[in-house]
Design a protein that fits this description.
With 192 residues, the chain is an alpha/beta fold. Helix content is 31%, strand content 15%. It has 7 helices and 6 strands. α3 (90-102) packs across α4 (117-129).
């Protein structure tokens, strides 16, 4: 599978607002808890999202492992910390997208995908060549770098951000991200 042009994203990772610089390409984990190897915790038709996303057939949800936020209230803590999930190849991700389409999914719902944007873009390119024609949903905490979102131009049809905080103190207390309000506002503006 062709790699995204700037494959060095994982040499000094700056994909998320944490800009931790982890050498994920060398097997190190970033603040997100994952290396550059794709890790998926669940891929299936999902009926428990917003009705406009799930519809009657379900959303083709792909839950990626790892998250830059460490919310004290996280309902998927083991997934968010990168401890749950299965490592897969980019080729397998292409197959997953196409399998979800074959199962009748209304869309491909990328859940907490930020850590793997370069591979997701490459997989979407390959899946489209093989007949993927579903809308792509980017399901996120809203804690995104504008530069990373710009790479998704032409790939994402629906942004589904979960805006969490307007108050920096609450963001710091509950997610360890005092900059969340300003970062998420800029991300939402870019999404629009």
């Amino acid at each position: 599978m062709k790699q995204m042009k700037n494959h060095n994203f994982y040499d000094n990772c700056m994909l998320c607002p944490r800009t931790c610089g982890a050498q994920r390409s060398k097997g190190k984990t970033g603040i997100c808890g994952v290396t550059e190897t794709l890790k998926v915790a669940r891929a299936a038709l999902h009926f428990w999202e917003e009705p406009c996303i799930s519809g009657t057939k379900g959303s083709g949800a792909v839950f990626f492992s790892g998250c830059a936020l460490h919310c004290v209230f996280c309902q998927n803590e083991s997934i968010a910390q990168g401890t749950a999930g299965k490592e897969i190849t980019p080729e397998r991700l292409v197959e997953i997208f196409l399998e979800l389409q074959e199962q009748g999914a209304n869309n491909i719902n990328l859940v907490t995908p930020t850590n793997f944007v370069p591979q997701i873009i490459a997989a979407l390119d390959q899946a489209r060549k093989k007949g993927l024609n579903l809308p792509i949903v980017y399901n996120t905490s809203g804690y995104e770098k504008v530069e990373t979102l710009r790479r998704l131009n032409g790939y994402v049809d629906v942004y589904l951000p979960d805006f969490k905080y307007l108050d920096p103190e609450h963001a710091k207390k509950y997610s360890g991200a005092e900059d969340y309000p300003e970062v998420a506002k800029a991300a939402l503006e870019e999404m629009v």
